[in-house]
Write a structure and sequence with these properties.
- By secondary structure, this protein is of the alpha+beta class.
- The chain contains 8 helices and 15 strands.
- Strands 2-1-5 form a 3-stranded antiparallel sheet. Strands 3-4 form a two-stranded antiparallel ribbon.
- It is rod-shaped.
- One of its GO terms (molecular function) is ubiquitin protein ligase activity.
- One of its GO terms (cellular component) is cytoplasmic side of plasma membrane.
- Keywords: Acyltransferase, Metal-binding, Receptor, Transferase, Zinc, Zinc-finger.
- It is an enzyme of class 2 (transferase).
């Protein structure tokens, strides 16, 4: 069955007051474009169309089991006028809207009602929120809201913050896998592990005599690397 538009949706208290006379015998909602079957029962035009499409050319009334053909139903303009003149509350009465008026004006009101629920602007969020609450939702509740990374200060969607920390953030503290030193900003890890300029005690560096021909590498302490660097400009090949 096709989704019904907001015009036919009324609060339960109105539905109980109006009674079954003005309700569709298929969807149970307020009649929209009322059609009367040969047996006298009413259906929404769209509901009746769907019922015929889903079955054979003959339909059985859902109320009294009378069988009828498509040419045995007709639009009931009198019923349509009655339905349009019914006085109902806003669809969102239970949410706080106090609007009340004829059914003919309900759809226009609902489209602009501050209590109308709309999808969050972030598809990944999936939440339906009141139009009036959308700004607050985006600032405080939405799992996709933008927040500043606590390390690099870039604005990141909250639902992607963990991935940002694990893979991208240049200021996020990481652990060197070679020396186990922690709290190293990701962007400085390569410099930390540089064989000559870095301060990692787990990286193999060149032999102190590399500039005069030694090709061996070994694990050097930070002080040894600094010593090599200070001597590089003093040692010249023979």
């Amino acid at each position: 069955m096709k989704e019904r538009i907001c015009e036919t949706k009324v609060p339960r208290k109105d539905k109980e007051r109006i009674g079954a006379k003005y309700m569709c015998n298929s969807c149970g909602l307020l009649l929209r474009d009322a059609m009367q079957a040969v047996c006298g029962h009413f259906y929404c035009n769209s509901c009746l169309t769907n019922l015929f499409l889903n079955g054979t050319s003959k339909m059985t009334c859902l109320q009294d089991k009378t069988e009828f053909l498509p040419n045995e139903v007709f639009p009931d303009n009198f019923m349509r006028r009655e339905v349009q003149a019914l006085v109902v509350h806003c669809t969102f009465l239970d949410d706080g809207c106090q609007w009340k008026g004829e059914v003919r004006h309900l759809e226009n009101h609902t489209n602009s009602c501050e209590f109308l629920k709309i999808p969050c602007v972030h598809p990944e969020c999936g939440m339906q929120v009141k139009k009036a609450d959308l700004t607050e939702h985006l600032e405080k509740e939405c799992k996709c809201r933008l927040e500043n990374c606590g390390f690099c200060k870039s604005q990141i969607n909250l639902n992607k913050m963990k991935l940002h920390h694990e893979k991208e953030c240049p200021a996020y503290p990481v652990v060197c896998e070679k020396c186990s030193k922690d709290d190293i900003p990701r962007a400085k890890l390569l410099h930390h592990q540089d064989p000559v300029m870095g301060d990692c005690d787990g990286v193999q560096g060149p032999c102190p005599f590399a500039q005069i021909g030694c090709s061996k590498t070994e694990v050097l302490t930070n002080n040894q690397r600094k010593s090599i660097w200070s001597k590089r400009t003093l040692i010249t090949p023979p």
